[in-house]
C-alpha cells in the first residue's frame, strides 16, 4: 500500500487508520466520485480540519491519498508530461474544501500544471456531510493568452452531478489534438519568452524581437511573449512569484515545454525557477550557446563551443546538488567521501582543461598561417558586424565564393578567407567572421578568442550594418563595443550600410540620407551587388592612401608590391 502524501503530522492513530482505509474505496468509471467516498473524505475533513483528497485514475482506482491543511493540498510529484503530448494525465483530483467555496487558484494551478482530467472540490457541511460540488477542467477552445483557460461547473449536491469523467476527458483530448494538429512541427520544442521591462516596455520589446529571432534560429516555436514591468529583477525568480505561476499555467495549457528568459539567469535563479515550474528553463546565453552548437562545423568551432558550454555549466553544476552528498568513495582510486557532485565537477574541469589544450594546439597552427599571410605583405580586410547583417553575402559577392548564407543568426562560425583582386593588380585577403550580438556571452568571447584574434591582423574592418533593421543603431553600438573590448578601436574601419534594396530609394536613397546627416558610410546591397563598385573604390583609397597603405599593425605594402 503506498504512503499517504502530505500533512499527516499530529493526526491521531485512529484518524491515520481511517485515512489508510481510503485505499479500499473504488469509484465507478462513469461517476466523478461515489457517495461513499465523498462521505468518507468529508467526515475526515470535519474531524481533522484539513483538506483531504484522492487522485483517481480512469478505471476508478485510487492512486494517491493526500492530506493538506485548512486551505490547500500539496499534490505528490507525479512527473512531467512528455513535451507536446495532447493527452491529459488520466487522473482526476477529488478533494474536500472546509466550507462552501468555488475552486481556488491553487486548484486551478494543479489542474493546469499537472494536466489533470478534472478537479473536483466538495464542500464539507458543518454536519460533516458532503455539500455542494465544484468541477473544473481545461478548456481546449480558449486561445488568447490572457483568456481563461478552464471551465467550471457547479452542482447543488452529488445527486445532481451528471458528469461522466472519462468521456469528458476523452472529448477534451480529442479537441486538444485538433487544436495542436494544425501547427507547424518544431523539433526543438515550444517556448514562452519572458522579458523584464526595466527601462520601459519599448526597450524590452526591441530586445525581445531579437530573442524571438534567436529562438527561431534554434528551431524553437515561440508560443507567446510575456513582459513584466518591474523596478528591478527579482533576486529569486527574476519575475514576480505570481507572474511565474501564471507563466506556468499558460505553458501547460499551450503545451509549451520551456520558458526562455531574455535576462541571463544566475545559477541560483535558474534553480529556483525550475524548482517552481515543470518546464525547461533557458536564458538568452544558453540559447545562443545552443545555436552555436548547432552551427559549429569545423573541428575548432566544435571545441570552442563545447568549451563555452562547459564553462557556462560549471557554476550551475555546483549549485544544483548543494547539500546532497551521495557517497561514492573509493572507486577508481578517488579519495573516500567524494560526492557525486564533486566528481561531476571534476570531470567537467578535466574536460575543460583538455579542450583548452586542444584549442591551443589548433591556435598554434592558425598562428603559423597568420604569420605566413603577414609575411606576404598582403593587406587584410576583415568583415565584421552584427549577426545576420549580410557579411557572408558580401564576401560571396565580392569574391565569387559560396560561404553559407542563411536567414539565421550565427550562420557563420568558422572564419573564411578569400583573395580579392583590385584593378591594377592589387590584391587583398578578405575574411568573414562570426557575427556579433548585443551582450555576447563572455564564455563565448573567451572560447572564440582564437578566432577573434585574427581580427588583430586586419588592416581595415568593414563594419557591415543591416540598414533595414529597425534596431540597426543599437546593433552598431553593440559591434563597436565588442571591437573595443577586443582592443581594435584603432583599426581603420569603414561603415557599410547593407540591405539598402529593402529601403525606400534603394542605395541612392540611403546615400542621400547619409549625406544629409553628414554621416560616413557606403550604402550597398550585397544581394543585388549595387554599390559594390563604390565600396571597392573607398576600400582602395583607404588601403593605398597616397601610395602607401595605412596599416594598424605598422606594416606597409607598397603600391607596386607584387603579392604572393
Ligand atoms: N534583401 C537583402 N537581403 C540580404 C542582403 N544581404 C544579405 N541578405 C540576407 O540576409 C540574411 C543573412 O545573410 P548572411 O550573409 O548569412 O549574414 P551574415 O552577416 O553572414 O550572418 P551570420 O553569419 O549569421 O552572422 C540572408 O538571408 C541573406 O540573403 C541584401 O543586401 N539585401
Ligand atoms: Mg555569415
Summarize the structure in words.
The chain has about 575 residues and is an alpha/beta fold. The protein has four domains: about 5-180, no CATH class; about 190-290, GTPase HflX, N-terminal domain (Rossmann fold, 3-Layer(aba) Sandwich), CATH 3.40.50; about 295-360, no CATH class; about 375-545, Rossmann fold, CATH 3.40.50.300. It is about 40% helix and about 20% strand. It is built from 16 helices and 17 strands. It has helices at about 15-20, 35-50, 105-115, 165-180, 200-215, 240-255, 265-275, 285-295, 300-320, 340-375, 390-400, 440-445, 450-455, 470-485, 505-515, 530-545, and strands at about 5, 50-55, 60-65, 90-95, 120-125, 130-140, 150-155, 190-195, 220-230, 260, 280-285, 380-385, 415-420, 425-430, 460-465, 495-500, 520-525. Helix 5 (about 200-215) links the parallel strand 8 and strand 9 (about 220-230). Helix 9 runs antiparallel to helix 10. Bound molecules: guanosine-5'-triphosphate and magnesium ion. Guanosine-5'-triphosphate binds near residues 387 and 407. The site of guanosine-5'-triphosphate has 24 residues, from helix 11. Its main location: cytoplasm. One of its GO terms (cellular component) is cytoplasm.
Determine the structural class based on helices, strands and strand pairing.
Answer: alpha/beta
Q: How far apart, in Å, are the first and last alpha carbons?
A: 83 Å
Give the C-alpha Rg. 31 Å
Overall 3D shape: elongated
Uncertain spans, ≥5 residues at pLDDT below 50? 319-337, 549-564
Beta-strand proportion: 15-25%
Strand order of the largest sheet: 1-3-2-4-5-6-7
**Mean pLDDT value:** 84
Listed once per kind, the bound small molecules are:
guanosine-5'-triphosphate, magnesium ion
Helix content: 25-40%
DSSP E strands, number: 17
Organism: Corallococcus carmarthensis
Function: GTPase that associates with the 50S ribosomal subunit and may have a role during protein synthesis or ribosome biogenesis.
Subunit structure: Monomer. Associates with the 50S ribosomal subunit.
GO molecular function: GTP binding; GTPase activity; metal ion binding; ribosome binding
Amino acid at each position: 500500500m503506498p504512503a499517504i502524501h502530505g500533512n499527516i503530522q499530529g493526526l491521531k492513530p485512529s484518524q491515520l487508520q481511517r485515512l489508510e482505509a481510503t485505499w479500499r474505496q473504488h469509484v465507478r468509471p462513469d461517476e466523478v466520485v461515489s457517495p461513499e467516498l465523498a462521505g468518507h473524505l468529508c467526515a475526515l475533513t470535519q474531524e481533522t480540519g484539513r483538506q483531504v483528497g484522492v487522485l483517481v485514475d480512469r478505471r476508478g482506482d485510487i492512486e494517491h491519498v493526500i492530506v493538506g491543511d485548512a486551505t490547500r493540498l500539496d499534490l505528490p510529484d507525479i512527473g512531467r508530461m512528455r513535451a507536446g503530448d495532447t493527452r491529459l494525465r488520466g487522473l482526476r483530483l477529488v478533494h474536500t474544501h472546509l466550507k462552501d467555496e468555488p475552486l481556488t487558484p491553487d486548484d486551478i494551478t494543479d489542474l493546469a500544471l499537472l494536466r489533470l482530467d478534472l478537479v473536483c472540490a466538495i464542500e464539507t457541511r458543518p454536519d460533516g456531510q458532503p455539500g455542494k460540488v465544484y468541477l473544473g477542467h481545461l478548456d481546449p477552445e480558449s486561445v488568447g493568452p490572457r483568456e481563461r483557460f478552464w471551465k467550471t461547473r457547479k452542482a447543488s449536491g452529488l445527486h445532481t452531478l451528471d458528469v461522466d469523467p472519462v468521456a469528458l476527458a476523452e472529448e477534451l483530448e480529442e479537441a486538444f489534438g485538433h487544436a495542436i494538429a494544425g501547427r507547424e512541427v518544431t523539433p526543438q520544442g515550444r517556448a514562452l519568452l519572458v522579458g523584464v521591462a526595466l527601462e520601459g516596455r519599448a526597450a524590452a520589446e526591441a530586445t525581445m524581437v531579437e530573442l524571438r529571432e534567436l529562438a527561431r534560429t534554434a528551431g524553437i516555436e515561440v508560443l507567446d511573449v510575456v513582459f513584466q514591468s518591474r523596478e528591478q529583477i527579482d533576486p529569486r525568480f527574476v519575475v514576480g512569484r505570481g507572474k511565474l505561476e501564471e507563466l506556468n499555467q499558460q505553458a501547460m495549457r499551450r503545451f509549451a515545454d520551456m520558458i526562455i528568459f531574455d535576462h541571463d539567469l544566475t545559477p541560483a535563479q535558474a534553480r529556483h525557477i525550475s524548482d517552481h515550474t515543470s518546464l525547461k528553463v533557458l536564458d538568452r546565453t544558453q540559447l545562443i550557446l545552443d545555436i552555436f552548437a548547432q552551427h559549429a562545423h569545423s573541428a575548432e568551432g566544435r571545441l570552442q563551443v563545447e568549451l563555452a558550454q562547459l564553462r557556462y555549466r560549471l557554476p550551475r553544476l555546483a549549485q544544483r546538488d548543494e547539500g546532497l552528498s551521495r557517497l561514492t568513495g573509493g572507486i577508481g582510486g578517488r579519495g573516500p567521501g567524494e560526492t557525486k557532485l564533486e566528481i561531476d565537477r571534476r570531470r567537467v574541469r578535466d574536460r575543460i582543461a583538455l579542450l583548452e589544450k586542444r584549442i591551443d594546439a589548433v591556435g598554434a597552427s592558425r598562428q603559423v598561417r597568420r604569420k605566413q599571410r603577414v609575411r606576404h605583405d598582403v593587406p587584410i580586410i576583415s568583415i565584421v558586424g552584427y549577426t545576420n547583417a549580410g557579411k557572408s553575402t558580401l564576401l560571396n559577392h565580392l569574391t565569387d565564393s559560396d560561404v553559407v548564407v542563411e536567414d539565421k543568426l550565427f550562420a557563420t562560425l568558422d572564419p573564411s578567407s578569400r583573395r580579392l583582386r583590385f584593378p591594377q593588380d592589387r590584391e587583398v585577403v578578405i575574411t568573414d567572421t562570426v557575427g556579433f550580438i548585443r551582450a555576447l556571452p563572455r564564455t563565448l568571447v573567451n572560447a572564440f578568442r582564437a578566432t577573434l584574434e585574427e581580427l588583430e591582423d586586419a588592416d581595415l574592418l568593414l563594419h557591415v550594418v543591416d540598414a533595414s533593421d529597425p534596431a540597426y543603431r543599437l546593433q552598431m553600438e553593440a559591434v563597436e563595443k565588442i571591437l573595443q573590448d577586443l582592443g581594435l578601436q584603432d583599426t581603420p574601419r569603414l561603415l557599410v550600410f547593407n540591405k539598402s534594396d529593402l529601403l525606400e530609394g534603394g542605395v541612392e536613397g540611403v546615400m542621400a540620407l547619409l549625406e544629409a546627416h553628414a554621416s560616413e558610410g557606403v550604402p550597398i546591397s550585397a544581394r543585388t551587388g549595387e554599390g559594390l563598385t563604390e565600396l571597392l573604390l573607398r576600400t582602395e583609397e583607404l588601403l593605398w592612401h597616397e601610395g602607401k597603405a595605412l596599416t594598424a599593425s605598422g606594416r606597409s605594402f607598397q603600391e607596386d608590391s607584387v603579392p604572393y
